[in-house]
Amino acid sequence: MPTDRVQYKYREGNLALSEPNKLKPENLRSEEMIINLGPQHPSTHGVLRLEVLMDGEIVNEVVPHIGYLHRCFEKHAENLPYNQVIPFVDRLDYVAAMSNEHIYAMGVERMLGIENQIPKRVEYVRVLMAELNRIASHFIAIGTYGMDIGAFSPFFWLMRDREHILRLLEWASGARLLYNYIWIGGLFYDVPVGFEDRCREFVKYIKPKLKELETVLISNKIFIDRTANVGVLPLDLAVNAGVTGPILRASGLRFDLRRVDGYSVYPELDFDIPIGEGKMGQVGDCWDRTYVRYLELYESLKIVEQCLDKLMGEHTRTRDFDPQALVPKKIRPKAQDFYIRGEIPKGELGFFFRADGRSDIPFRCKCRSCSFVNLSVLPEISKGILVADLIAIIGSIDVVMGEVDR
Amino acid sequence: MTIDEIVSLLSDIVTADQIKIDRASTPHAIIVDKAKLTEVLQALQQNTSTYFDMLSCITGIDNGPQAGTMEVVYNLYSIPYNLHLMVKVIIPRENPVIDTVTHIWKSADWMEREVFDMYGIIFTNHPDLRRILMPADWEGYPLRKDYKHQEYYRDIKIEY
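Above: the input entities. Below: the structure tokens describing the complete assembly.
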């Protein structure tokens, strides 16, 4: 083999762990041992590595190691114009890309001061897409969670139903997962002709399937036994640890940024905010978190239906409607610091911008990702539990590693 | 509650030259002297008329070698009062050291580790200050404006 093609030289230090263990073997008691879980493990939902200190079957301490999917989002964003960052934003929470785009576009529009000029039709299409994507994201959360703890068929059912959503979104945007559909100041394209009717068919189709899901998974005796009273997250800890989204609501606080901040057209829409009530165990256990996600599916369907009503009635498609009409040619916000936040399926997604007023490129673009913060509560709620419950807790937090590592 | 009222609540902790109001930011920001940071944040969290119980975001900013400063920005939110506040601290670029706020908010733990990882800002008294996203033996702090990435990492050529 020619030497110039050798890509990697062997050296002993090169094989050392890039993330060394935090716990040292010499500090352990004789009955304790360190088990490494992940990064390549199906129930860690991606490349999450957990260093677990165990005493027999009991978990004494969990140390998460992250960063295996780090793709330098913030460094990229500091080198690209605002509008070219959107494809990178897609890749944060890649199962709910529309929601990410919505928040990002909203933030830049507010910095430019054009948020009140956006046509209502554009806003309704954005919310419609974001909510469809929320349903798809919750399908993954519930489906893979069932699979984590041994229920296989709900996963296939939910993947089958999610496929319908992905096809709808593909029809609108041309891509199945990473859409680049919501642009700053508008949309890539108006929804295709007939899209609204197909959405209605989908809503009609999915409602009985959700009932089926409840019968087979949510109210299943085995599922309840595995998840009720497991991984209880008290509300004060949840707030102090910055947890947001369905996890915070499952702990009993009616807090949804769509309602609290009332951004986009959400104040005009009628929907409820489900919270955990401890029906099967304590408030804030794994079952509550799943049940809140399940109830949110119905709320999202309600929003989808209302958006469709508006899109077919008040804000119907017209021949001369151009969703790109307001897309700015040059995006140069005046010098300011700006923090925008919004609700994506996993919680509060925030962007911190610093614009210097002289260039089209953000001076600083920080992403406050909800999975990252939600995951940081894992060591707190997994002390003194069984290792099987640890898997149940990871699944119920519903992390997407693309968003944790950015 | 306006930003002026929030600042007046802090008048017995900081003197007038240790706190400045920045109205260009959204939400409005206060710029606090580094030495008073933890006291101010503790007061903001515990005062019953503000009660900033959630720390949303910690951002590090490098203003570049010419300016010679770095900034740490805290985004606070109060759930009961629906209040937003941005708190900024400016620190020197050489020897950037700041106190931790992990004893006030648990969410600060990983956020501060991320700022340390990307900017090399040392948070004193942090319980577990290690790199979080980059490998433990990575050289340099990637989000500094004068960052040059190393040519090889463990004999693997780094191409960008």
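Note for the figure: Chain B touches chain A at residues 22, 24-27, 29, 53-57, 59, 61, 73, 75, 79, 82, 84, 86, 88, 105-107, 109-111, 114, 118, 128, 130-137, 142-143, 154-157 (CB under 8 Å).
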